[in-house]
Amino acid sequence: MCGTGSFLVGLPVLPEVDVAGGCFTIGSASSDTYPLKMTPTHTRMVPRYFMDEREVTVAAYRACVTAGKCPKPHTQTDSQGQTECDKCNYDVPGYDNHPVNCVEYEYAKAFCNFMGRRLPTETEWEFAANGLTVSTDVKYPWGNVWDPAKACFNTPTTTCPVASKGKTLGGSDVNPGVPGFYDLSGNVWEWTDSEPCVYQSNGSGLTCNLPGERVVRGGSGFDTDPLIMRSTVRFSNRTGNVPKAGWNRNLGFRCARTP
What is the distance between the alpha carbons of residues 243 and 42, in angstroms, rounded to a whole number? Predict the structure, then answer.
């Protein structure tokens, strides 16, 4: 079922989806050239969890900055010629309902803590996108066929208002009035709290040798390759004191929590 968000005074209301969890196949059998492999597919058990219905907006994040609990995101005025800052949303008039972007990992964690939540794992993120469906080839959060109308993808403005595209749950389209997730494909890449580990066929004994990075999921409005928007695709990004040249206009997030 869909939650109503936080009841604490002064916190943004961020609707959640109650995800029952289950045993599912993570990854894809598709060959790919991305740095983080999606292969081999393997089985994982996901306990019940909650995850935000939509990406965190500029307005919601600003409430955390105002409360003194979150750093201000990087902005266009910070850019000083850095390409990755030229589309940061935080200081752009009229973008309060767009996803906050140019957000470092530690900033995303601070916001989720502010809300009494946490960042999702990449397993939880992929389960929200695919559910119990088996992804052995191309798979998007709504099914097997790419549909640019369902994702904020390669747009003139590069981000879209949150919840302005299709709503999905477990690998299928759902109606706006029922529980589901917006923007699991496109708008901004979303931080997870998972290290970029190498998949193993039995799902155990993972090799995790990049502790200074975290997995990001979902693609962004800056991407031009539809295959990047698949719900199994994994990229990683650096954490902690990222130099200005590494500030990333693609990066946003949503939160999760354990019941």
Answer: 36
